[in-house]
Amino acid sequence: MTKKNKVNKAWVNRHVTDHYVHMAQKDGYRSRAAYKLLELDEEYHLFRNAKVVVDLGCAPGSWSQVASQKVGKLGLVIGLDLLPILPINNLNFIEGDFTETATLNQLIEMLKGNKADLVISDLAPNLSGVKGVDQARISYLVELVLDFSINYLKTGGNAVIKVFHGGDFDNLVKTARSTFEQVLAKKPNASRSESSEIYLLCRNKL
Ligand SMILES: C[S@@+](CC[C@H](N)C(=O)[O-])C[C@H]1O[C@@H](n2cnc3c(N)ncnc32)[C@H](O)[C@@H]1O
């Protein structure tokens, strides 16, 4: 068996035995990632009073499913991804690259002059395997999300942003702290321990 096949087999094994994968199948979520957001919401009430939510890097859509359930029909949920997704009730979806101005303009247009109460970003770039290149890509996306939050999040609004340990982590936290009253680094139980992902919980935009 080649090394790649061994890794794939290990992934499949882990996937079929994963508790959160089973829960997602049972609860009708498109991915186990839903439980990361649900867990953060349970502790920090992210969706309390949230009517306008922007979900960046939303495919296949489990965070958008959660957001659309939480805000209900009267809310506005906008999801954006490079990849197409199957429709979700109450979700306004943009297929595009968040790093491109044309996509950002589409997003701004969809906000119809509103600012968001909550920005959730699970954006993760395709990795090249070259550490320096990947860290730069990740940092760039997080910087863009912070920039978007500075301009399009209401005062008092919250953001959840996926970052990765290493690289520019300290600088990104520093930037977030200059924009939000409180910034916490959280690793939900549903996030795999072997993944270096961590979520910045940015509360109360100044
Ligand atoms: C971990 S997945 C998101 C999972 C999602 N939160 C869910 O619950 O289903 C990360 C997503 O980020 C998207 N992505 C990465 N770079 C992007 C970019 N520049 N613009 C838009 N989407 C991007 C990927 O296509 C991928 O679908």
Q: Overview of this structure, please?
A:
This protein is of the alpha/beta class. It has a single domain (30-205), classed as Rossmann fold (3-Layer(aba) Sandwich). It has 7 helices and 7 strands. It has helices at residues 3-17, 19-27, 34-44, 62-71, 101-111, 131-152, 169-177; strands at residues 52-56, 76-81, 91-95, 116-121, 153-164, 180-186, 197-205. Strands 3-2-1-4-5-7-6 form a 7-stranded mixed β-sheet, sandwiched between helices. The radius of gyration is 17 Å and the shape is globular. The structure holds S-adenosylmethionine. S-adenosylmethionine binds at residues 30-31, 33-34, 57-63, 80-83, 97-99, 122-125.
Residue share in helix: 40-55%
Termini separation comes to 55 Å
Query: How many alpha or pi helices?
Result: 7
CATH architecture heading = 3-Layer(aba) Sandwich
* Overall mean pLDDT: 93
- Tell me the number of structural domains: 1
Tell me about the biggest sheet?
Answer: 7 strands, mixed
Please identify the structural class as seen in this structure: alpha/beta
Poorly predicted sequence stretches spanning 5 or more consecutive residues? none
Number of strands: 7
- In N-to-C order, the SSE pattern is HHHEHEEHEHEHEE
Bound molecules: S-adenosylmethionine
Overall morphology: globular
CATH H level, superfamily name = Vaccinia Virus protein VP39
Give the percentage of residues in beta strands: 15-25%
The largest beta-sheet arranges its strands as 3-2-1-4-5-7-6
CATH classification class: Alpha Beta
From the alpha carbons, calculate the radius of gyration and give it in angstroms: 17 Å
CATH topology: Rossmann fold
